[in-house]
Every structure is written in structure tokens, then in C-alpha cells.
Amino acid sequence: MQRVNDRLMNWASLIEEDTLRQAEKASRLPFIHPHIALMPDAHLGKGATVGSVIPTLGALIPAAVGVDIGCGMAAVRTRYHRDDLRSDLGPLRLAIERAVPLSAGVYNTRLTDSARERVDQLAGAAGFDPGRYAKNWQLQLGTLGSGNHFIEVCHDENGAVWLFLHSGSRGVGNKIASHHIRVAQEIMTQRRITLPDRDLAYLTEGTEEFAAYLHELRWAQSFALANRDEMMDRVVACFAAFVGGPVEELERVQCHHNYTEQETHFGKQVWLSRKGAINAAAGVPGLIPGSMGDASYVVTGRGNEQALNSSPHGAGRSYSRSKARKTFTRQQLREAMKGIEFRDTDAFLDEIPQAYKPIDVVMRDAADLVEIRHTLRQLVNVKGD
């Protein structure tokens, strides 16, 4: 661990100066308590650093969660062994791609019974009209998105088959976050508050704007959780059809990595915003995916208080998407994905493993933050363009 200053701690051995500078700006805010923790996968982000844990007293920074509110992971351990699967996994990939809408702006055309039940629960709990952010928000439930979101079939070190996915609150969460980031920025302008970065605009506890953001943030976090559950149920059904038998879930793990909760740290109750970080309190299960084609991990938190009971959420980018597309080739992607069933397309060049930090380095840096329970290797990869 590197103490950058009294209000910034860093667990990343691979980190760029721009990332440290961005986090240092956030650490200057007067309501940080006691310090910001940078995770081993930290990299430059919009507004706040991805892979940062930001504890605040009496204020919330909407950009400290970001626009994909509630983004996170879900995993199911099945009773099946990799040897139970036939060698041609193409039909399984195609079935999943038919069952779950992929890519940005691609949603369901109708609600399944399970999605309708989840939508009704979300609508009843909202206390506001989500339709003012996205008229079709109901049809977004059970959809993946694009970028680094994925669905995978994996096996662990014992050969057990896992179903694994990564997604968040989709378009409706993005619109909610973007609205409140703008509101915070307008307030800063009205009050003539100077910030080290405009995207660090904040909302003060006790105000209507703070209460509105917190309420809608929590709703979007619930939407993200329900979205992953809906997709996972569809993936389980696809897998059951592929193996020709029921899928007994031996374990289901869910974790957000873009969210805010109230927690107690160093003697004070704070608003803890994890942007690209998971809860790693002692004994808490978590999921840390590697990049496309790399290993992923099922972990248990060690409860490292200096790290604010947090850990990395993945590998962390080392190349921007535009630079990755210019640097890497389709052949390199094929080599990286050798032995894995995936859709072979140029659209995934920016997700090639070489565009990310080596996950083994990230996990080595995280040794004091989490304990590794299982190491997962991919059999099938599904992504949106």
C-alpha cells in the first residue's frame, strides 16, 4: 500500500500519473473522511477515478458512482462438471444470445412473466416515475448492454461449471445519474463553489436535491440487481436446455461495484461510494472478473479497514478503447480467445485482454483485501457490440 498523502491511499502497483492526479483532486474535498482508497485496478475515469472508494461526510458526489449505477456481477455455481458438456458449445452461445438482448440501445420487445413480476416490484417501490428518464425502462430489464458487459460459462479449478455475468442499470440508470450530475453542477455554479474538477460537483445532505438523488440512486441499484437476476434466470434456462437436465444452483453470488451505501469507518458514519470496487468486508462473498479471455475470481473479503473494506472489481483498463482498436488485430484477439467459444468480430478489439491490466498482478496487489475461493476459466463468452 502506498500513502500518496494523508487523504489518499493506493493499492495499485500499476498506475498512471494521470490517475493519481485525478484521485488527488478528489482527496482535496473538505468532506472526505478519512481518506480515498485506490484499488489495484484503478484507472482514469470520467469525474471520479474508476477503482476508487470515496467516503464522504454530509455530501454525495454523483460522479463518484458514475452513470452505470449498480453495475456489478452475478454468478451461479452449478452441479455440472466441464466434462459433462459436449465439445461443441456454439449452440449454447447462440441460445444465450437469443435469450438476452445484447448491445447498447437493444432491449426486450416484450416482458416475460418473470420480468413483469420484477418490473411491478420496481414500479411499486419507485416513489417517482422512472418513465421520465426512459419511457421504455420496463423493457430494459433483462438486457446486457455493451462494452465490458458479458455473459460467460466458466469452470473452476475443480471443473465445476459456473454461469457468470456483468451488467448494470442500463439506459434508465444512465439517465438518472446524468440528471443528478447536472443538478449538482448547476448548484455549484449557483453557489459559486470552486472545485478541483467540475465533475466532482456534490449534493449536500439535508437538501431536496440530495434526498432525490439518494432515493433514485437506490432505486437504480435495485433495478441493476433485478436486471442481473432476470438475465441469470434466462442463462440458467439456456444451460438447462443445452445439458438436457435441471440446473441445481449450489450457490448464487451477487455484488454491485458502482454504488453508494452508508457505512461506518474510522468512528464515523459516512456515505461510501464505490466506483469500480466491491464490498470486501470480512466474510462477504464477491466476484472479480478478469478481461475477456482471462481468469476471473470468486473471493471472500478480508475486512481491510485501511482499504475501507473494499477490493478491486476487475482488471482495469491500460489502453483506452480508441487506442486498443488502433493497436490490436483480429488475429491477436483470436489467439487470446483460443479454446473459448465466442463471436469472432472486430467489434471486440477494444476488449482484448492486452487492453487491460494483467489480472494476476491486480490479484497479487489485492492479497490483503480478499481471499481467493475459486479461479474461473472461460468456456463460452457472450458480449454485445
TrEMBL record:
**What cofactors does the UniProt entry give for this protein?**
Mn(2+)
Q: What is this protein called?
A: 3'-phosphate/5'-hydroxy nucleic acid ligase
Q: Where is this region: Disordered?
A: 306-326
Q: What is its EC number?
A: 6.5.1.8
Co-factor: note:
Binds 2 manganese ions per subunit.
**Lineage per the UniProt record:** Bacteria, Bacillati, Actinomycetota, Actinomycetes, Micromonosporales
Q: Name one GO molecular function term.
A: GTP binding
- Provide the alphabetized UniProt keywords: GTP-binding, Ligase, Manganese, Metal-binding, Nucleotide-binding, RNA repair
Keyword Manganese set for record: yes
Enumerate the InterPro entries for this protein. Answer: RtcB (IPR001233), RtcB-like (IPR052915), RtcB-like_sf (IPR036025)
> What is this enzyme's class at the first EC digit?
ligase
Please name the source species. Answer: Actinoplanes aureus
Q: Which SUPFAM superfamilies match?
A: Hypothetical protein PH1602
Residue positions annotated to bind GMP are 148-152, 257-258, 289-292, 296, 313-316, 383
- Please give one Pfam family short name: RtcB
- Could you confirm whether the keyword Metal-binding appears in this record? yes
Q: Which domain of life is it from?
A: Bacteria
* Annotated catalysed reactions: a 3'-end 3'-phospho-ribonucleotide-RNA + a 5'-end dephospho-ribonucleoside-RNA + GTP = a ribonucleotidyl-ribonucleotide-RNA + GMP + diphosphate
Binding-site positions, Mn(2+) 1: D68, H149
